[in-house]
Amino acid sequence: MAKRISGELLRKLRNDIPIDILIARVLKIPSKYSEGYFRFLCPVCNEFNTATKKETNLARCFRCNKNFNPIDIVMTYYNKNFLDTVKFLMPIFAYFNKVS
Ligand SMILES: [Zn+2]
After folding, report:
1. At the fourth CATH level, which superfamily is domain 18-99?
2. Ion ligand 1: protein residues whose beta carbon lies under 5 Å
3. How remote is the CA of residue 31 from the centroid of ligand 1, in Å?
4. 77 FRET partner, CA 20 to 30 A, in 21, 34, 50, 70?
5. CA 10, 14, 17 angle in degrees (round to 5)?
6. pLDDT of 63-96, one tens digit each?
């Protein structure tokens, strides 16, 4: 019964949903700009020792030494499994695909 999720779709979910907008506007994780970097409250350690990288669309926590792509951050923040995370991200991806 499991629906297969293509690698192409996963690549798009990871790359085409801007990580900082996902964090600040969709997940509403506390975030701020400091020293020119977008910083968010790490969902693992609850510290602001974080940044995001536009080129890779990754969010990083320097304290946990962990990178989050859009799928990872949703899984971690909501404690959702992989399939539920993909379902959650689909309409968000569709929205960004339309506006960009
Ligand atoms: Zn952390």
Report:
1. Zinc finger, CHC2-typedomain (3.90.580.10)
2. 42, 44-45, 61, 63-64
3. 13
4. 34
5. 120
6. 999 999 999 999 999 999 999 999 999 999 999 8
d(CA 24, CA 74): 12
pLDDT at 29: 98
- Dist. CA 94 → ligand 1 center (Å): 29
Residue 46 CA, ligand 1 centroid: distance in Å: 6
CA 90 / ligand 1 centre spacing (Å): 26
Q: Where are the alpha helices (DSSP H) in the chain?
A: 7-15, 19-21, 70-78, 82-99
How many other CB atoms sit within 10 Å of the CB of residue 74? Answer: 26
